[in-house]
Amino acid sequence: MFDALLITLALAGSAPAAAQAATSPETVVQRQLDAYNRHDEAAFVATYAQDIEIFDLGAEPKPRLTGKPALSALYAGLFARAKPRADIVSRAVTGAFVTDHERVTLASGRSFDAVAVYQVENGLIRRVWFAQ
Description:
With 132 residues, the protein is an alpha+beta fold. The protein has one domain (25-131): Nuclear Transport Factor 2, Chain: A (Roll). The chain has four helices and six strands. It has helices at residues 2-22, 25-38, 41-46, 68-81, and strands spanning 48-56, 65-66, 85-94, 97-105, 111-121, 124-131. A six-stranded mixed beta sheet has the order 2-1-6-5-4-3. The longest helix is centred in the N-terminal third of the chain and has 21 residues, at 2-22. The chain starts with a helix and ends with a strand. Mean pLDDT is 88; it is low at 1-15.
């Protein structure tokens, strides 16, 4: 009986850790990046909160995009036209924030560097700040 109790406690303790790892900020942002590179708009948008806000660093403090419908429309068009691919040059994780230095390459061959700061809340990307 004591062995069964220990096994039950061990399993109960590992489930939250596994669930927490699946929704860690870095895991969520990586899932988003993988969907971006596959041009999978549905999987990409699924990593974002319903009330997502996207900002340009250094610009006015109001978001340039708000909400999943606007995000979906923007990226569906981008994926269809430009077929972008982002490669991580470097990544830093601090609590709920993931900062990526990305090198983005378009189907045309044009590439550019960008910095994205992702804020993850409740397993979804809630805010993003971009600089390029």
